[in-house]
Description:
The complex is a heterodimer. By secondary structure, chain A is mainly alpha-helical. Chain A is built from 21 helices and no strands. The termini of chain A are far apart. Chain B is mostly beta strands. Chain B has one helix and 19 strands. In chain B, strand 12 and strand 13 (197-199) form a beta hairpin.
Amino acid sequence: MKTFYSKIVSLFLVFSVIGITLGVQSCDKEVETKEALGVLTPASLDQTASTWKPIILTNYSTQVPVAAPAATTSAAYLAEIAVIKDAQSKLTSSQRSSIEYWSAGGVLRWNQILRGLVAKYNLPPAPKADGTYATPDAENPFGDPAFPFSNPPYAARAYSYVSVAQYDALKAAWFYKFQYNRPSPYKVDSSVESLMPKSDLPAYPSEDAVLSGVTAEMLKVLFPAALEEITLRAADQRNAALWSGKATASDISTGLALGKSVAAIILAPGTGRFRTDGMANAVGTPAQWQALADGATARGEIPWISLDNPSRPPMLPNFGKVKAWNMTPAQITSERPLPPTPTASSEMTKEVEEVKYYSENSTRERLAIVHKWADGAGTYTPPGHWNDIAEEYIAAENYSEVRAARAFALLNMAIHDAGVGCWETKYFYFNPRPSQLDQSIRTGTGIPNFPAYTSGHSTFSASAATILSYLFPSDAQYFNEAASEASMSRLYGAIHYRSDCEKGIAHGNKIGGYTVTFAANDGAGN
Amino acid sequence: MMKKFTFLITIITLSAGFLRAQTFTDGLMMPKRDLCTGFIYSNDSWKNYWEGTLNRENGNIGTVSTKSVAWMGTYGITDKFNVIAVLPYVWTHASQGTLQDMKGIQDLTIGAKYNFLKQAIGAGDLSTFLVGSYSTPLSDYTPDYLPLSIGLAAQKLTGRFTTHYKLSKGWYATGNIGYTWRGNVTLDRPAYYTDGQLTMSNEVWMPNVLDYSFNVGYIKHGLQAFIGYTQQNTLGGGDIRRQDMPFVSNRMNFSKIDATFKYFIPKINSLAVWAGLGYTVTGRNTGQSTYYMGGMLYTLHFGKTAN
């Protein structure tokens, strides 16, 4: 038995060594969850930003007044300086991490956070036991289903409202910064450390606090169940501004109030744009859903039916009537693509055959393209994918916060308008998916629960590529190729006909052009 | 939609099901210079699955079935040291909805098994074994199409300790415990959300896996039959969210029971037939699967005619 035990012991030793070795290697498994962003050192102060064309606000001095700050020689201000010095004298590593995190730029960070929220809430309601579906309810956001279901139209609108609100709030902030010209604490007192890059941008009101206030207020309405995360992030941003020596308590409290007041105008019950843009009616009623099908039948077409099991009501059929940012309702209708290939025609038979070819001849390369762009349930959606793409270009330009906000606002207005235009088209024609016309067609990704014509991916992507090409002209070819790939991924995945994709691209390019026209005349230059 | 399940099931089937009978987890050794090789067919299907801990059905996939044909071979370097290899070809299919089937060569597993102790204790013999194995995908399949992916595409390294006690009358009991280190996997997309976090990367951290099993059986006169219980726990990873798709790094846990039968055909020495079936009793982020398998294995004697 002695050999028995010695063998056991020696083998366990050998095993432990193997385990430890592998354990050490497994530390290398760590995946960086946040996109790498450098420290933002704005290339320009953008002193004239308050003259750039506002989107929703009309007059900063009357709509969102900000009182003059106390003098930097006042006792109150000096007390605020003392608070910063005290905080800086005992910074913890977690506080330093916050400073590092937010020094990448508040607009970029909030865009990442927003993409995370969209992905978190982008889940369709589960069927109930009786085979029906409950509608997500803003009054019961923690229920089953949760609110919201941040599907592509919901997400497009959310990205646009957050970006536009940030952009208007920052222009208002710039208006007061250069009216009052209160310097940063580290400029007033050289013993205050500057733990973020130094800048000549006036500190009052704090742009970080403005962003925290306006963004948190918008997000709390868009993603009410995420209240805790949103509130903590916003507070962290303000704290980082103070700890870094960038802003005093009064710079911050004034900025917070300004940000919140901008959000309050947009969200005002009964009058705010957010409340009156038509989103409240986007879900529609069973009678309206039936009328869509009846309309298609009356035109001699096969109407779309849900391919979900159990059958699910169509996704936001009235989203096409939601207010666009840079297009009038008349322009939305006049830009609507011509009717799709008639479902009974021989041309449609050919279109279906082509889809079936891609269904039956999937290659690894095409499947990778399908999955790269699928952006389906549980993801940040195609609008989020284009924010992801844009982030890198916006970060590389070292834009000031206000110019970064402009870039995201332009992008997301173009994407929202694409969503409105595309949804208006989808429900105007109510055209069936390939797998409805030929049930043998199997798909490489989930079939979205709305009509086929035209492709949402194509429209979103082309509109995004159009505005990004305006902002970053030297990379236009890349953006357009990416949009084209996103578009074709839907044919490769056998969930769209080629004409859905091609018409969607052309439509998206036109829609993006409206925001380009806005951008070219907003006084910000390119 | 529910891509991960299939793969999980595949793993379950391969690692805990028929392979147990094969050699990674059992208490048997091939004699020196004998090669046992053949093919095993398995069919695993489930209609219910656990979305996190919620047991449910899904009309958009119906019943998901995974079939595989695996080649396997075990060779006796010595009576106490065997090498083992397994390579399956896998087909997946969902009975409802529109999602495409997947098929392809899955992961090659190669391993070594060392019988470091064998001695008489009481009325029987006690044997203990160490098994190490490495597994890697042999084709570029996607793990991001669960439950219809053919696998999880992770490289795996497994260490296993097995104890086998056999009475002279043929009854035996085997217990074993294994720990599997899994390498990260790469998706075709630039970002994904799992476990409460949006990750801006195509790389997915894969939690490691602990499994253990216990069998009792009978082996004598060319007949082997046993029943077993297997538990697998993934040591980390997120749950499938409500009405979400499965994800490659989900915390896939299960316990299952199975029965396996092996018989050497009397007149054709060296040819063995295998059959087995199993059922998943409890699970988390896995399918509640039923499987059956059957196979034929032939033993070649390269050594001098020892007997």
